[in-house]
Amino acid sequence: MSAFKVDGIELTGLRSGTGVPVLMLHGAGGPRSILATCERFAKSFSVIAPTHPGFADCPEVDRLDTVDDLAYLYLDLLDSLNLHDVTVIGFSLGGWIACEMAIKSTARIGRIILVDAVGVRFGGPQSTELADLFGIPPAQMSKLAYFDPKYAPDPAQMTDLDKLNAQRSFQAFARYAWEPYLHNPKLRQRLHRIDKPALLIWGKHDRIVDADYGRKFCAAIPGAKLVVLPNVGHVPQIEAPEKFDALVADFIGGRAIAAE
Amino acid sequence: MKFYHFSEAPYPFLPDLATLESLRVDLPNSYYDPEKGADLFHQRLDEWCLCDELGINIMLNEHHQTPTCVVPNIVVTGSVLARQTKNVRILELGNPIANRRDPVRVAEETAMVDVLSRGRLDCGFVRGVPMEIAPSNQNPTQSQSRFWEAHDLIMKTWTTHDGPFRWEGKYFHYRAVNIWPRPYQQPHPPIWITTSTLVNAEEIGRRGYVCATFLVGFEQAKKIFDAYRKGYRESFGCDPMPDRFAYLGFAHVAETDEAAREPAKKLLWYMESGKQAPQWNAPPGYMPAEVMAALSGKSRTADFRRLDVDFQIGFGNFFTGNPDTVVKQIRKFHDEVGGIGNLLLMGHAGYMTHEETSSHLKLFAKDVMPQVQGLSLPQTKAAE
Fold first, then answer.
1. Which residues from chain A sit within 8 angstroms of residue B277, using beta carbons?
2. What is the distance between the terminal CA atoms of chain B, rounded to a whole angstrom?
3. Of B350, B271, B340, B349, which is closest to residue B312 (Cα–Cα)?
4. Mean pLDDT, all residues of chain B
5. What per-residue confidence (pLDDT) applies to A2?
6. Which of A154, B36, B219, B281 is the most buried (most CB within 10 A)?
7. What does the alpha-carbon distance between residue A147 and residue A133 come to, in Å, rounded to a whole number?
8. Sign (positive/negative) of CA torsion A50, A56, A59, A62?
9. CA distances (Å), B155 to each of A188, B92, B99, B107, B145, in order?
10. Which of B163, B141, B152, B175 is closest to B106 using CA atoms?
11. Which of A110-124, A127-141, B33-47 has the lowest mean pLDDT?
């Protein structure tokens, strides 16, 4: 069932709660990895969490096949919902989408939170700063994603529908991020355009994009702050949910953040 | 019935295959000795030249980043043989046009091979096996649609003779396409397309191209050809001639069944060497999500990979024994699949020697071909 309609496209996802509008953009694993966070946030905020076209239960849209397309789609979504002062929280791939939105227009965006985001390259042609998720056996992926493997989804517990949604998400991820792999070569030089407060939250032990990458990302956005969480990998909202929620609440509430 | 001799031109001088995890994409090329490699290339080319004397057609292919086939460009081998042979057809099966960045270059190079061979080229287009995605780095979720756009562009390139045209497609962009030379065969060389699925077979049928399928056994080959027939009837209102069908299996002919057995086993190196890491074997989007979810780690090729000549004969993948035995196997295959006009025979693989392959080719031409080439003779009239 669709939760949003924008540009003639029906998107699945979650819309719940009241308060400050928060646009939650999920990562390459699909909406699963932010579902619990969305449900918690809906108690304090107005959560808008669309599923990207092609991921999980959201139909693919032929004309949308780049992260740039998704950025315009969600800018249009904010227009169509007539939202203001929106907090955009982008997780991993969703962080890339959030940046692509913010370099285009922050007219409806109040602040940005990037969580172990991707989308930029700082190194040369042979740099491996973005772990190649298409170049490793699929079984290794959750080893890269989590500091503590106990948080990784257990394949034995997955239903047939979970498996299908996981495959659909993996394919959609490839659709948007295959080449150039997991980044837009132009994004780095455009990050200076982000003119709203930005907070970057990073897992100290992220093996997909490490904390040094997070530091470079932070330095490229004017005035951005970085918080690195210990004993956390690529998914802070799952491995350290209390710290994560507190950081988000403090940042939205305008309270001081103990950043690096 | 037409016969084509095929070898992947492998480089087999590797450590024990059991010790290697993957022979695709990531095996270091330090294992490749260029001197031995040169000998191998010349042996394979000599075998294809022998085919020209014997009246056996030639089939070529290409792969990338793998010792299982060290020909990275089908146009290179095609060019050599277009010049060195005089009589037989040269089948390029095929050009991996979904993975090529420049389809116009495929069109112009292929046109040159057609001219050089004085119109002996059969031009295959393939989507490429999943392991070809990583070397080309083309987006696997788009390979099917890239394939057809590349096809449309190549066909337009071959059949346009009144000066440049513009192409602004989804994947390919050209300002002024106007190739020299143009193809020798008019309007273009015969088109072959490979498939192992019914959906694609039906689409190939609608277009009337030659449909080739590899090592899928009697049962699946029959289903694929039936799907083709359905698509063909939709477009042409009649049943296709058997020359629209091609099947690839292994072949080794010797004086006796017993003498054929040991060399035949050597061909199974092809199966044994089909090892690849899962990330190269199943890139996301190459197959539908539904198929991938249902597989969930199960192997889809276990049966077809069995290293057992008798099993493979029974499955429909192997033609081997004395000439009369092989004639019976070919007739059986022909009848099981409802008629077939082209048999593609892998007569060399792995450590098989040049002498073994040459001996097989000579016997095949002398004692097998005359008995079976009359099968399924009717040819499609229109150039399609």
1. 137
2. 18
3. B271
4. 95
5. 77
6. B281
7. 16
8. positive
9. 41, 16, 17, 8, 15
10. B152
11. A127-141
Interface test with A, best of B131, B136, B141, B280 (most A CBs within 10 A): B141
CA angle, B125 then B131 then B133, to 5°: 70
Q: Which amino acid is at A92?
A: S
Domain count, chain A: 1
CA distance B75 to B149: 21
Please indicate if any CB of chain A lies within 8 Å of the CB of B137: yes
How many other C-beta atoms are found inside a 10 Å radius of the C-beta of residue B267?
A: 27
Q: Cβ–Cβ of B279/A171 closer than 8 Å?
A: no
- Residue B304: partners with Cβ closer than 8 Å, 6 or more residues away: B215, B216, B217, B271, B315, B317
**Distance between CA atoms of B378 and B278, rounded to whole angstroms?**
43
Q: Is B141 on the interface with A (CB under 8 A)?
A: yes
How large is the ipTM?
0.94
B289 and A160 within 8 Å at the Cβ level: the answer is no
Residues 6+ apart with CB under 8 A from B352: B263, B266, B267, B269
Contacts (Cβ under 8 Å, ≥6 apart) of B37:
B11, B70
Residue A260 within any structural domain of the chain: no
Q: Which CATH architecture has domain B2-372?
A: Alpha-Beta Barrel (3.20)
User: Would you call A136 an interface residue with chain B, using a CB distance cutoff of 8 Å?
Assistant: yes
Q: What is the Cα–Cα distance from A170 to B140, expressed in whole angstroms?
A: 12
For residue A109, give its domain range: 4-252
Structure tokens at A148: 């503590």
Residues B300-310 have pLDDT tens digits of 555 677 899 99
The phi, psi pair for A120, rounded to 5°, reads: -130, 150
Whether A178 and B141 lie within 8 Å, measured CB to CB: yes
* Short-list B119, B111, B116, B113, CA closest to B181: B111
Q: Is position A257 within any domain?
A: no
> CB of A160 within 8 Å of any CB in chain B?
yes
For residue B136, give the chain A residue with the closest CA: A179
CATH of the domain at A92: 3.40.50.1820
Q: Would A259 be classed as within a structural domain?
A: no
Indicate if the pLDDT at residue B127 is higher than 50.
Answer: yes
A59 Cα to chain B: minimum distance (Å): 12
> Are B6 and B61 within 8 A, CB to CB?
yes
- In degrees rounded to 5, what are phi and psi of residue B73? -150, 115
Cα–Cα distances in Å, from B251 out to A53, B6, B197, B263, B360? Answer: 48, 10, 24, 10, 8
Q: What angle do CA B303, B263, B220 make, to 5 degrees?
A: 25
Tell me the Cα Rg of chain B: 20
A63 lies in some domain: yes
Concatenate the DSSP letters of all residues of B319-355 into one string.
EEESHHHHHHHHHHHHHHTT--SEEEEEEE-TT--HH
Residue B301: what pLDDT?
55
